[in-house]
Design goal:
alpha+beta, 2 domains, four-stranded antiparallel beta sheet, 14 helices, 4 strands
């Protein structure tokens, strides 16, 4: 009886080992026949923090694209009766108990020595609704609408979830509108830096010699200049009478003129190490043109390094615009960006009495962290065969 049991256990063990071996073989065959993009996706989705950060970035960019719909009200609408009003809390419980629909209390104003003090008024309850008709707007400058994601339906209520500024404007709505400028300027700037970095760095590393020497001396000269003073000097050269759209593209060019340097050094180093590899020599023997060798063989071979550089450049571009606008050398009102909104934080007295005006910092920190985590995940996923 015991020998039969041992035989059965050996048979079951052999079956389990065979099943594991078969599953491992099937998994290897699945990897071998998969496309490059599928391998990248399989590796990227294992990076949980990168997936969460990608979702966060997707929400931010969706908010930027549909800012007119997401914002509670017009960012330029002001009411002198509600200057420096603190944020209103969203509640689910009042004096009568729990409510399934969120709400905010009304506010009472008290003026003492010309100072306005706000306090909640529990006798006035304003419920929040989705898809509310409110302030008219023009979506993307094309479609007329007045539908907002969140709002109040009753008259006389206020909804300032992040408070108001010195003119009585809704801080949250201005932050949402500012995301369109701050996030898009990073994409445009990185695209220009990518073109300049790959082009100049590729020429320097592929041809070498006298051309490489000249380009590297120029790069070293620009790198020895501190970034912030260089940005400030270039931004100060922009005429004050330029319209906001021209200033926007001017700031993008200013940021790109400095942002390509690091990428060009990376591309040059990779070209120097790869230009004598066997696959490059084989392409030359096959009669491939230099342009095809660069674009179809060399650049794709170090995609992971390009992705890492670009994902690190994006937050730097956003931070550069924010810093210049904060110092008054970048975008200027009436243009709305996170840096422009933080200009009011230059006065410590205002920040001490109205700390909610620092709210754009939360958006900036979240975007910076999300870009870095996504960059780490993409850098690892771009080389799916590595362990």
């Amino acid at each position: 009886m015991s020998s039969s049991e041992d035989t059965g256990q050996l048979a079951s063990g052999a079956d389990s080992t065979l099943a594991e071996t078969t599953a491992a073989t099937a998994e290897e065959e699945r990897v071998y026949v998969a496309s490059q993009w599928r391998l990248v996706w399989w590796r990227f989705r294992r990076h949980k923090l990168a997936i969460v950060s990608a979702v966060v970035l997707g929400l931010f960019y969706a908010m930027a694209v549909f800012c007119e719909f997401v914002a509670v009200t017009d960012p330029d609408a002001f009411d002198p009766k509600y200057t420096y009003m603190p944020p209103q809390r969203i509640r689910f419980v009042d004096e009568s108990g729990f409510r399934f629909r969120p709400f905010v209390y009304g506010t009472k104003q008290t003026i003492v020595n010309f100072d306005i003090t706000y306090r909640e008024d529990p006798s006035k309850v304003h419920q929040l609704y989705l898809f509310v008709h409110g302030t008219p707007y023009k979506l993307w400058g094309l479609f007329d609408s007045d539908l907002h994601l969140v709002g109040l339906r009753d008259e006389g209520g206020t909804l300032f979830l992040l408070g108001t500024d010195r003119l009585g404007r809704d801080v949250l709505s201005r932050m949402i509108y500012g995301s369109r400028i701050s996030l898009s300027i990073g994409l445009v700037g990185v695209f220009v830096s990518l073109v300049l970095g790959v082009l100049i760095g590729g020429v320097s590393g592929y041809y070498g010699g006298f051309i490489d020497t000249i380009i590297q001396r120029v790069v070293e000269f620009i790198r020895c200049i501190p970034t912030i003073p260089l940005w400030m000097a270039l931004s100060a050269a922009l005429p004050l009478d330029w319209p906001p759209l021209r200033v926007y593209f001017g700031i993008t060019v200013v940021l790109s003129l400095v942002g390509w340097i690091g990428l060009a050094r990376v591309v040059r180093g990779k070209f120097l190490s790869l230009r004598e590899e066997d696959f490059v020599l084989a392409a030359r023997i096959a009669g491939a043109s230099e342009w095809r060798i660069i674009t179809r063989h060399l650049v794709p071979s170090f995609t992971s390094h390009l992705i890492a550089s670009l994902t690190l450049s994006l937050p730097n571009m956003i931070m550069g615009e924010t810093s210049l606008s904060f110092l008054g050398l970048g975008l200027r009102p009436p243009t709305i960006s996170w840096g422009v909104l933080l200009q009011s934080a230059q006065q410590l007295s205002v920040v001490a009495l109205s700390p909610w005006l620092m709210s754009p910092v939360v958006f900036i920190v979240l975007v910076m962290l999300a870009f870095n985590f996504v960059g780490d995940g993409l850098r690892d996923a771009a080389d799916p065969y590595s362990r």
